[in-house]
From TrEMBL:
Coiled coil: none annotated. It is an enzyme of class 2 (transferase). Residues 27-309 form the Gcp-like domain. Its cofactor is Fe(2+). It comes from Sporolactobacillus kofuensis. It comes from the Bacteria. This is tRNA N6-adenosine threonylcarbamoyltransferase. Substrate binds at residues 136-140, 169, 182, 186, 275. Fe cation binds at residues 114, 118, 303. It catalyses: L-threonylcarbamoyladenylate + adenosine(37) in tRNA = N(6)-L-threonylcarbamoyladenosine(37) in tRNA + AMP + H(+).
Amino acid sequence: KKKTMILGIETSCDETAAAVVENGTVIRSNAVASQIDIHRRFGGVVPEVASRHHVDQITLVCEEAMNNSGISWDDLDAIAVTQGPGLIGALLVGVNGAKALAYAHQVPLVPVHHITGHIYANRFVQELEFPLIALVVSGGHTELVHMKEHGSYEVIGTTRDDAAGEAFDKVARTIGLPYPGGPEIDKLAKGGQPTINFPRAWLEEGSLDFSFSGLKSAVINYIHNEQQRGHELNHADIAASFQESVSEVLVKKTMIAAERVHAKQILVAGGVSANSKVRSEMERAANTRGIPLSIPPLSLCTDNAAMIAASGTIGFLKGMRADLSLNGKANLAI
Ligand code: KG4
Ligand code: ZN
């Protein structure tokens, strides 16, 4: 049987990435040019700066992915590209790069939703078992997705305000930690205790939605109040307490969702799934309930193009195609 070879391209935020994936499950190459060091001095991603760096990097990164894949352009079945959601200027660089390559090499173009990419990062770890619940937690998203089969997505919970990663980044900034704040909070929390009782937003009975803006404000208010009273702040305890609050809500709601749909598998994906507390608590809760859990290795939790190629493989096999009028969409529905 012929292998399906897909080149994935991802530029929705601050990583310019391209990867070649075989049969949706084997990474042949995975090139990422990260802009984190460039945006750090601004304390966050500056959209216009991101677009310019994507333009600089896109051709090099695609060439690197092809060169390291061991296949030639003729072996390629399709090019899969992140269509959205994300920063529009950033998305356009990937979409136009993909269109140019698809036209030049006469291969089909497959549009991919970024969230489905994060979910499919798990397929490099193990085969998906349906029905499943996927929690996608990143700097831009906090979503619970119910999947009954490959390529079918039902969002059953989402954030009403900030994404979990956004809360990590803002709290980190308040403590004076560099961007991106998630990994910094994670490190700092290891030396602290969750002694401060920050709020957990459960919302209405039975709701699978999330809200993190109240927690973020509570942490910021706590810091200001303590400073006003002249108390010395224990940053490690603040980080541990904040992290515990986020992780408790993420884990409980994911378990409720999994039990509700009788999930055969729980997937966690997106940048925040790199968090050590989220990983260990999720493992514990899934074990207790006897539901198999999959979380990608750290390198595949954050934005990359292998995951886009993996999701694009499913789209390709289902006959999804885009023509050269394909456009990036900042707010794309799943
Ligand atoms: O998936 P991703 O690379 O990009 C988006 O699609 O947003 O996620 C980036 C987010 C950032 O908010 C970053 O702070 C967070 O993931 N993150 C973490 C950790 N590593 C990355 N948050 C908590 N703990 C971590 N270890
Ligand atoms: Zn992402």
